[in-house]
Structure formats: C-alpha cells, structure tokens
Amino acid sequence: MNLPARLGIVALVLGAFGGSIAFLSAGQNGGTSSGDTAPAVRWESSAQCRDCHRDVYDEWFGSHHQISFTNPEVRSTSDDFRKEECMDCHLPRPLAVTGFGKRTLPRRTHFDEGVGCITCHLGPNGGILGRQSRPDAPCKPVADTAFLAVDACASCHNQHGTTDQWAASTFAAQGTDCSSCHMPTVERKRADGSVRQGRMHRYDGAHDKATLRQAGEFTLARDGAEVTFTLHNKGAGHNFPTEERHRAVDIVYRFVTAAGPGEWTRAYRFRNPYRDETTPINPGNATSENTQLPAGERKTLRAAVPDDAIAVEARLWYRLTPFVLDDDPRSTLLEERRLELR
Known about the structure:
Layout: H1 3-28, H2 54-60, H3 72-77, H4 87-90, H5 95-98, H6 117-121, E1 129-130, E2 142-143, H7 150-157, H8 162-167, H9 170-173, H10 178-182, E3 185-189, E4 195-199, H11 209-215, E5 216-223, E6 226-233, E7 248-257, E8 260-261, E9 265-270, E10 298-304, E11 311-319, E12 331-340
Parallel strand pairs: 1-2
Antiparallel strand pairs: 3-4, 5-6, 6-10, 7-8, 7-9, 7-11, 11-12
C-alpha cells in the first residue's frame, strides 16, 4: 500500500475517533438524544452560585450539609472515612445523576462543600434544576418536581429508614414533607427590591435545640403512689431520635428528700442500637431492639415514690452519641421538670 493510501486510512480513522469523542463529550456535558444542547457553563461548585444567591449561600455555608465531609464528629465516627461507604452521603455526586431515591455515589472534588448546591440542583444534562423555570436568569433553571420530592432526601436519609418512617406517619398522609420542617418558607428580596417566597437552606435538625424541642412533648405527673414520665413524639414526622444509630434520647429522674436530691436514674433510652450490641438498650427490651419513638406515639414510664420524697425532678436529654455524660457538649438538655410531692 502506497503512502497516500495509508494517510487516507489514518485520516478516516482519526475522523471517526474524533466524532465518537465529540458525541461522548456532548453526553457528558448535557447533550441528550432529544437534541438538548449542553449548557454554556459547567456547573460544579457552590461558589458559582454565591454572587447571585448570596443569602441562600450564607445560610448553607456552615450548615451540617456544607460541613458533612469536614465535620470532626463525622471524621471520628467514620474513622476518618476509612469506612468508605460513609463518603457516599457525606460527599455525594449530584442526586439527579445517580437517581433520586437511589443510593448515592461519592465524588472526589470540592471536599469542603460536602452536600452543596450542585448536589441537589444539577440536572442530568448539566443544567440547573429549580422550583420555577427562569430562562432570564444567569443559570437558567428549569422547573423540576423530582428534586423537591422526598425521594431526593431519601437518597441519603433513608440509609437508616428515616423517610420510610415518614411514609408510615400521618405527616405523609397530610402532605407535610421533609422541606416543610427542615426548609421552612422565608421571604427573599430580589435585586429590583421585590419580595419572593423561598426556602431556608440551613437544614436545622439534630444540632439545633429549638428544632429538637419541637419534636417531643415531655410531661411529668403523679399517679397515686407513682410518678409518670411521658414523651410524646408530636412534632417529628419520623422516629425520635432518627437517622444515625448513635443518636439517643434519655429520660432521667431523681427524687428529692429533706436531705437533698438523690442520684440521677435513667428511666428510659430511645435509640436504635448498633448491629453488634449484645446488651439491651433498656431492661425489658430484647437485644438489638429499636426503641426509637415513632411519629405520633407516646411512651410513659413509671417510678414508685419513696416515703421520704418531697419532690421529683426529671430531665430530657438528646445525645449525639450515647457514650457521653451530661456535661459533654454532645449532650443537649431539652426539658427539665420538677414536681412537688408534698
């Protein structure tokens, strides 16, 4: 074969190879079989959203979504992410890419952004998803209902059954979803001074005392020769506590006599144990029994009143990990009650 013929074959091969690369690149940057064109901007960082959405960015920055990968508590619990499966949710790829409601996959970029704007708002074609279509906006968001649905939260938050718990509650039946509580409606000002309705992006939850106090109603009462301690999960649309197995809610009490208060005694612990635990969470529970309090349910405990007791004191604690004492910053005192007995 002469040289011109060989060069012609090489040109054909390179042309076909180049066409394949162009086709694949179009798919990776947003091109679809329906003819959609790739976005002019490659959206890959929350920092790109900051200038136009400063108020939202400021809410998100410092939130437990933003620090989900850098949080020292998470680094410790995951053995500095040697438990690699933890990275799936603490440094996830965009949810729309892996599929809403499906297990996420980890990314290897922008470690300081954890769960950020791109996680929820990047569409499978590389464009931006929003509550409304805004072709006039710089990011040209396209209205999408999928990223607003509970399935978007389920990708990470159903690893421990939280969204399944919600689905079984009255909250689901009445249309109160995740964003109703964790992304409350707020007013935002546009550049032209007009006001629009938006959603808070701070995601208050287990680290916010006010949110925790809204979940449970704690009461202390006397019933003849006994006192009762009741916790009613009236405010959470899922178990209380929920999510991580190391979250715990404790009811503790002590009787007070003329000589002073006695020792604190734990009446009950609400928690989902680790799979390898061999000791029941509370006396009377089965080994590995989940004692979290489902949405809408009550738990009442009783204690006999000593003859010399003049009062009883009770406290409700939320603990980010069960193996800490009351004075640890990972313990939050939610409620404190005192009942005079004489």
